[in-house]
Amino acid sequence: MNCAHLELLLIRKMPYGKYKGCVIADLPGNYLNWYARVGFPSGELGQLLALMQELDHNGLSCLLDPLRNR
User: Fold this and answer.
1) What is the DSSP letter of 57?
2) Which end of the chain has a smaller Cβ tally under 10 Å, C or N?
3) Residue 54 carries which DSSP code?
4) How many CB atoms lie within 10 A of CB 22?
5) Of the candidates 22, 49, 19, the residue with the CA atom closest to the CA atom of residue 36
6) Which domain holds residue 64?
7) Do residues 37 and 47 make contact, with C-beta atoms less than 8 angstroms apart?
8) DSSP letter, residue 28
9) pLDDT by residue (tens digit) across 22-66?
């Protein structure tokens, strides 16, 4: 994990699906867990979704708060 990826979680939006247009950091945990079960997409999007799922699952979403407040 690097700081650039954390910042991208607050910028990148979901390009498709039920939550199209939603910032990755704001995706609900059950949606992220669904991806963890069925498999994350390839590429940067999949990496970001996996990172957000890991943060959410371990209760570390608060790590993004200082970045949100900038």
Assistant:
1) H
2) C
3) H
4) 14
5) 49
6) 3-68
7) no
8) -
9) 999 999 999 999 999 999 999 999 999 999 999 999 999 998 998
Q: Are 9 and 48 in contact (CB under 8 A)?
A: yes
Comparing C-alpha atoms, which of 67, 69, 31, 70 is closest to residue 49?
Answer: 31
C-beta separation of 15 from 45 below 8 A:
yes
pLDDT of 69 over the 90 cut: no
Which residue's structure tokens are 């371990």? Answer: 58
Q: How many domains does the chain have?
A: 1
Tell me how far the alpha carbon of residue 5 is from its chain's centroid: 10
Residue pointed to by tokens 């699952």:
57
pTM of the model: 0.92
- Token duo for residue 20: 């199209």
Q: What is the pLDDT of residue 35?
A: 97
DSSP three-state, residue 13? strand
